[in-house]
What we know:
Number of helices: 4
Distance between the termini: 18 Å
Order of helices and strands: HHHH
Amino acid sequence: MQLTGIKRRTLWQYWQFHTRGWRLTTMLYVAWPYWLLLAAVAFIVNAQYANSPWYVGFLTGACAGAFLRDVGRIQQSYRVWPMVEEITKWDRVEELMRESDESVEADG
Length: 108
């Protein structure tokens, strides 16, 4: 199976949870670049349209909604992790990660 970047990152995240236990830091490590980008866009747009309170309020609400959506997904991940841990074939995950690492090394 050829793994795309998103599949490889997802397997890495699951493997981290499997070997180290479910940790909030792993989830934050994955999410922080997106939150930083969201904050930068919000800051730039708010600075550009500071004289339009409606627009600033809309953008602030949209950013807060995106952040809270991610918090909800983190909570959901925490709640379902024991089930995922139980039903996943970890030897297959390890094999896929090894194959992916080998193919990346061969390509690069």
